[in-house]
């Protein structure tokens, strides 16, 4: 009887360890392909920030710098950040999702990609008093609305991505905070459908395709990155594990990245063609020739000559500070963000 | 047999009536954005059966979903029967397992998604896990109840005839709990199919749940309704198949049907 | 002797739970087999739990506010689901034409999960309480109908004959014989559907929310706070178990009383 009991206890121990061990992720150096080249798993989204990857593929820059590129696609920054936590990609460009990935998953921010000045908007209903209130902020003539008309209104957006930041900044402009409005959290697709179905007074959209569709449907823009004079600075992140174990490969990747951005910045038509090719290959159906041209005109990649022109990671750190101030993140997160900005990889790559 | 014919007849009548009501409702001005025309939905389904929606046609999507359900469900069925009977048959087993069972049972499978992604990543494995966890506790519940409710007289008789404890379990308890285990497997299959929609929300580019999710992303009401009907039909088919299997396998013990 | 035995199994239960937490602690905090974002240690979950009682970071609500909001949604959906499910289940089981007519539609609808209805309910009912309650309603309704139906169907035929001989009408037999004898089944139905209501909660709060346990988990996920995700899950588990216990208590009172 005693032995039986002991056996039971041992079995439970084994079973519970097995449950935990199931989730164990192998850490250590990245995998190597048949030719002995390191496979770098690059996280990407079918937007402007990831287009240089198309150049790396087309020009076989990965071959040139001695690694193998494997692109892993994500629809948006949230899932991409989450996948970093699950150890599913090593390096990649990301937007506001970085504010979660860097401090929480200890990823390193090694470079800025480009400054997006446009592409995320806030819309309201055409007949609402918010729109009727017109522009009330002198410095920002395109920001529509007023404190009185916005108070108590329902704002739809996604917590934890650029639309959250944009929406908070929008109401801050009128001296309002989270407590003065009903901020309702939904995934981007649901913000779009719910708003179309008649719910909410204001919708904050981080994805350009949904926002453009709403504009086309006749909903006026009351705010946005450009309108509010705020930007989104995408950045390149690298997982803690890859940084520690594959530092040299990260340097090689950045060499290829800067060769690609140099190429893109040098030739406008090439940039447009590459963007279209990349979007097409990754299942985007909502882009137009005109839109891609506009996008390429507005945005410029940070390349080898401008890598240190601005303080790297300043935007992301500022975003985290903003979230802390608005009570969405704990104070300690800001410290974690600051210590994870690392400039050494790019410095070594541009040597 | 005539009973079955009668049932089929009424099923056809009531479902056609529902479609007719739906059709006329969709024609009303006020319902325009709420209800698409059933004819459009039907056309969408027929077109989707031949030409692809996204990367696959409807059969492809169903197969993808079924394969996910199959893996998660099979795992859950095996574990559920083993753990459930261990919990019901031995007092020690009950003492060990029941606290976890009681705590985990009310946690919906969707709540596991964040952890599943961190543990298993975003591909198939995390979907299997979500379906597994959603099905496991349901099957366990039924197995537990089934084994516990075995006729005490039966046990007494077997004991008197000198059956050992493990003989008792395999020869008496398990066979008499089979109907309940089967109803657990049937409910579990329904639950697995339902959980599939949640699992495909993780990230997928195929599957019956994906059809709904993509329909929502592109505000295509026809596609949403088509996806829902698809899930209903396949689910109904699965449950019916399971009932048929039950009728064949445990013909000696069909309760009140 | 018997008393002692019960205590022995209680002890085993307690020991197992402790061992589980210990193993969890060992693989996370002591040996560091897992990064804390993937599996936070039990002590950090505990401290997050304590902190969440008063803190509103990151989702704008304390734990109790979330619990309360979730209870409102779940119970609204539950009450409506039971309120509709009981009469539908009873009439399906008792009146043949209703059964013929409703059963096929019901069989078809029951396999569609609440979560699949989200896009449609958003359009029909908006993003407020009613849409969320509707998603919970779906699960509760199915659970109630199934159990009530089989309960009434199992009414002892002999009892029905006796009632018929005494000249009772169909409605009277239903009221006096079938429903009372189906009471245990009905209560099982009520209990199962309460579980369903609670299970549907996260799906409902996925829709749109400002408060609620499902919402809390969702936001914690977006911020990569796996410690808060686990706090939310454990709270849902405990609340669900408590609800079931409460209903079992009522059931014992009522069924005994008859």
Topology:
The complex is a heterotrimer of chains A (351), B (257) and C (258).
Chain A: H1 2-22, E1 38-44, H2 52-58, H3 61-64, E2 67-73, H4 77-85, E3 91-94, H5 98-105, E4 108-116, E5 121-124, H6 129-132, H7 147-150, E6 154-157, H8 162-173, E7 182-185, H9 188-196, E8 202-205, H10 208-216, E9 221-224, E10 232-238, H11 240-245, H12 247-266, H13 268-281, H14 289-298, H15 314-325, H16 332-339, H17 344-349
Chain B: H1 2-27, H2 38-50, H3 58-89, H4 91-104, H5 113-120, H6 124-148, H7 152-160, H8 165-200, H9 208-217, H10 221-249
Helix pairs in contact in B: 2-10, 3-4, 3-6, 3-8, 3-9, 5-6, 6-8, 7-8, 8-10, 9-10
Chain C: H1 2-30, H2 42-52, H3 63-94, H4 96-110, H5 114-125, H6 129-153, H7 157-165, H8 170-199, H9 201-207, H10 213-222, H11 226-257
Written overview of the protein:
The complex is a heterotrimer of chains A (351), B (257) and C (258). By secondary structure, chain A is of the alpha/beta class. Chain A is 46% helix and 15% strand. Chain A folds into 2 domains: 196 residues, Periplasmic binding protein-like II (D-Maltodextrin-Binding Protein, domain 2, 3-Layer(aba) Sandwich); 104 residues, 3-Layer(aba) Sandwich (D-Maltodextrin-Binding Protein, domain 2). Chain A has 17 helices and 10 strands. In chain A, the strands form 3 sheets. Chain A has a 5-stranded mixed beta sheet with strand order 7-6-8-5-9. Chain A has a 3-stranded antiparallel beta sheet with strand order 3-10-4. Chain A has a two-stranded parallel sheet with strand order 1-2. The radius of gyration of chain A is 23 Å and the shape is globular. The N and C termini of chain A lie far apart (71 Å). The model of chain A has no long low-confidence stretch (mean pLDDT 87). Chain B contains 10 helices and no strands. The two termini of chain B are 14 Å apart. With 258 residues, chain C is mainly α. Chain C has 2 domains: 33 residues; 218 residues, MetI-like (MetI-like fold, Orthogonal Bundle). Chain C is 82% helix and 0% strand. In chain C, helix 7 packs antiparallel against helix 8. The longest helix of chain C is centred in the first third of the chain and has 32 residues. Chain C is globular and about 75 Å long. The model of chain C has no long low-confidence stretch (mean pLDDT 87). The chains are: A alpha/beta (351), B mainly alpha (257), C mainly alpha (258). At the B-C interface, helix 1, helix 4, helix 5, helix 8 and helix 9 of B face helix 1, helix 4, helix 5, helix 8 and helix 9 of C.
């Amino acid at each position: 009887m005693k032995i039986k009991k002991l056996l039971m206890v041992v079995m439970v121990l084994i079973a519970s360890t097995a449950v935990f061990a199931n989730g164990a992720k192998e850490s250590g150096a990245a995998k190597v392909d048949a030719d002995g080249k390191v496979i770098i798993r690059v996280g990407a989204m079918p937007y402007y920030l990831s287009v240089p990857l198309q150049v790396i593929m087309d020009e076989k820059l990965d071959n040139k710098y001695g690694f193998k590129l494997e692109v892993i696609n994500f629809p948006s920054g949230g899932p991409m950040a989450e996948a970093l936590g699950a150890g599913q990609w090593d390096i990649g460009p990301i937007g506001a999702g970085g504010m979660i990935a860097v401090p929480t998953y200890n990823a390193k921010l090694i470079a800025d990609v480009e400054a997006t000045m446009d592409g995320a908007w806030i819309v309201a209903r055409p007949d609402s008093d918010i729109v009727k209130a017109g522009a009330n902020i002198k410095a920002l003539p395109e920001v529509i609305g007023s404190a009185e008309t916005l108070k108590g209104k329902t704002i739809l957006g996604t917590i934890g991505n650029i639309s959250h930041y944009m929406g908070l900044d929008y109401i801050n402009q009128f001296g309002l905070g989270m407590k003065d409005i009903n901020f309702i959290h939904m995934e981007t697709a649901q913000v779009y459908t719910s708003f179309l179905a008649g719910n909410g007074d204001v919708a904050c959209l981080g994805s350009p395709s949904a926002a453009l569709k709403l504009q086309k449907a006749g909903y006026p823009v009351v705010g946005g990155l450009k309108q509010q004079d705020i930007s989104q600075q995408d950045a390149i992140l690298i997982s803690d594990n890859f940084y520690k174990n594959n530092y040299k490969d990260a340097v090689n990747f950045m060499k290829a990245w800067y060769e690609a951005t140099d190429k893109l910045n040098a030739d406008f038509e090439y940039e447009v063609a590459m963007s279209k090719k990349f979007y097409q290959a990754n299942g985007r159906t909502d882009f137009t020739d005109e839109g891609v041209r506009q996008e390429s005109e507005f945005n410029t990649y940070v390349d080898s000559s401008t890598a240190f022109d601005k303080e790297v990671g300043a935007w992301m750190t500022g975003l985290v500070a903003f979230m802390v101030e608005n009570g969405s993140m704990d104070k300690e997160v800001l410290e974690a963000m600051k210590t994870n900005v690392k400039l050494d990889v790019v410095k070594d790559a541009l040597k | 047999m005539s009973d079955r014919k009668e049932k089929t007849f009424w099923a056809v009548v009531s479902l056609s009536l529902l479609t007719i009501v739906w059709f006329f409702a969709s024609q009303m001005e006020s319902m325009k954005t709420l209800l698409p025309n059933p004819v459009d939905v039907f056309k969408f389904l027929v077109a989707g059966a031949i030409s692809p929606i996204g990367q696959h046609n409807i059969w492809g999507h169903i197969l993808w979903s079924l394969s996910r359900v199959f893996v998660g469900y099979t795992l859950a069925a095996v574990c559920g029967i083993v753990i459930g009977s261990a919990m019901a048959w031995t007092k020690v087993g009950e003492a060990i397992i029941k606290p976890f069972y009681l705590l985990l049972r009310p946690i919906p499978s969707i709540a596991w998604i964040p952890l599943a992604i961190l543990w298993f990543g975003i591909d198939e494995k995390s979907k299997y896990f979500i379906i597994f966890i959603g099905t496991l506790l349901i099957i366990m519940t039924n197995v537990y109840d089934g084994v516990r409710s075995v006729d005490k007289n039966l046990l007494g008789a077997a004991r008197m005839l000198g059956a050992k404890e493990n003989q008792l379990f395999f020869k008496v308890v398990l066979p008499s709990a089979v109907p309940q285990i089967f109803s657990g497997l049937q409910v579990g299959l329904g639950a697995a199919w339902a959980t599939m929609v949640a699992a495909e929300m993780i990230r997928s580019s195929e599957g019956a749940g994906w059809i709904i999710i993509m329909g929502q992303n592109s505000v295509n009401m026809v596609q949403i309704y088509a996806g829902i009907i698809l899930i209903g039909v396949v689910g109904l088919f699965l449950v019916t198949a399971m009932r048929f299997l039950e009728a064949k396998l445990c013909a000696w013990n069909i309760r009140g049907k | 002797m018997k008393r002692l035995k019960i205590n022995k199994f209680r002890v085993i239960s307690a020991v197992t739970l402790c061992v589980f937490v210990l193993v969890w602690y060992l693989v996370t905090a002591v040996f560091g087999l897992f990064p804390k974002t993937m599996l936070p240690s039990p002590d950090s979950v505990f401290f997050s739990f304590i902190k969440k009682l008063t803190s509103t970071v990151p989702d704008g609500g304390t734990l109790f506010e979330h619990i309360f909001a979730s209870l409102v949604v779940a119970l609204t959906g539950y009450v409506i689901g039971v309120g509709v499910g009981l009469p539908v289940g009873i009439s399906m089981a008792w009146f043949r034409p209703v059964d013929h007519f409703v059963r096929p539609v019901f069989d078809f609808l029951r396999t569609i999960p609440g979560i699949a209805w989200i896009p449609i309910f958003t359009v029909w009912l908006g993003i407020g309480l009613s849409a969320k309650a509707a998603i919970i309603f779906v699960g509760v309704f199915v659970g109630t109908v199934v159990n009530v139906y089989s309960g009434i169907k199992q009414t002892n035929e002999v009892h029905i004959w006796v009632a018929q001989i005494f000249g009772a009408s169909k409605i009277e037999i239903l009221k006096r014989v079938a429903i009372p004898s189906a009471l245990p089944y009905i209560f099982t139905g009520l209990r199962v559907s309460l579980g369903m209501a609670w299970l549907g909660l996260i799906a409902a709060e996925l829709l749109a929310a400002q408060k609620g346990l499902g919402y809390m988990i969702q936001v914690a996920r977006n911020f990569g706070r796996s410690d808060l995700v686990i706090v939310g899950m454990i709270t849902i588990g405990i609340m669900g178990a408590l609800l079931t216990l409460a209903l079992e208590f009522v059931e014992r009172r009522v069924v005994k009383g008859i």
